[in-house]
Amino acid sequence: MLLTAACPLCGRRGGPVCAPCLAVVGPPAALPPPRELDELVALLDYHAARPLVTGLKNGQRRLVLGPLADALAARLAPAPGAVVTWAPTTPARRRHRGFDQAELLARALARRWGLPCRRLLLRTAGAQSGRGRAARRQGPRFLAPGVVGAPVVLVDDVVTTGATLTAAARALRAAGAPAVTAAAIARAERPIA
């Protein structure tokens, strides 16, 4: 028996995520980017797209990355000479999942744009998921050990408080990045319980 992929939003078989669902979920409300970022492009409203995002992160539904990368790449035009990187997850989460979803998305976007993708950040502390909103606002800590002399596209899967992207962008700017633009699958417009 051959099983085909099913859309995590509607369950329709035939592909990893269907275009009608992406259209219905739609983008998040236009909100200012988190501190330290020049721009943030988020593809979907997190609350509507939650099954898709959690399916990628926890359900091993990596097939959704292709359609999401295609849609996100079409919405963002990186600066000339930019390098693509990601906000790395914790080592424990990477071991548990077997992958870092932000890294996979960053590599897919870099291929579509024809840009280099490099690990520029080390996460020194702080898992965000499972923490309350006040604790998430403190954010994780990152270090950018090399010199970054190019504009950066910083990729993460979900933006809730913006603390992860702010901390990552701060480290990139301290390492010399002249501009930091962020790309994410989804952004929450209201607090996550």
Describe this structure in words.
By secondary structure, the protein is of the alpha/beta class. Helices cover about 35% and strands about 20% of the residues. The chain is built from seven helices and six strands. The strands form two sheets. It has a four-stranded parallel sheet, with helices on both faces. It has a two-stranded antiparallel ribbon with strand order 3-4. Helix 3 packs across helix 5.
Domain count: 1
Roughly how many Å is the radius of gyration? 16 Å
Mean pLDDT, all residues: 84
Strand content: 15-25%
Strand arrangement across the biggest beta sheet = 1-6-5-2
The CATH level-2 architecture is identified as 3-Layer(aba) Sandwich
Secondary-structure element pattern, one letter each: HEHHEHHEHEEHE
Indicate the multimeric state.
single chain
Question: Which CATH first-tier class would you pick?
Answer: Alpha Beta
Main beta sheet strand tally, sense and closure: 4 strands, parallel
